[in-house]
Design a protein that fits this description.
Length: 195
Amino acid sequence: MALIVGLTGGIGSGKTTVAKMFEESGIPIYIADDRARQIMDRKDVVNAVQSIFKEDVKIGEVLDRKKIREIVFDNKDLLTQLNNIVHPEVKKDFEEWKVANDASPFVIKESAVLFENKLHTQCDLVILVTAPEEIRIKRVMERDKVSYDNVKSIISNQMQDSDKIPLSDYVIININKHLVNKEVKMIINDIIFKI
């Protein structure tokens, strides 16, 4: 059975870039957000999600994610109900994906909210990707064309790296791509050595 390695990091840390480096080295990567989006497009899930909202949250046959985000932002009860529909489906999808990738010595489950959603408890090891806050803010401003204050607000609402570091087995400081690539290779060798 392949080891499950969690990969996480706050907004702008560059965890997607790091995930691609692992993938280029032949390690299967499960991007939880991408898979959740695919699952939320399934007809059974669309119907289940629509059933918890009073108003229409669909655009044609698919969910209006922007509208849902706006509604659940201030409604913890609805957010819990939504998560109770989506999270079990993502968990089942991951289990099926893991079986399909079991020939690999380990697989990576990438999730921005690995610690927040207690997903790290389902992982054998955890890799945290981090970077200085100013670099993270600059990356997100360039990528998403948003203001400094907007990014700063998102970061302040996320779990802080100082709380994530003690829960992580590996910490990658993502400033220099060349050095990060070397570190990824060292981590792969270290994990394989531990198996």
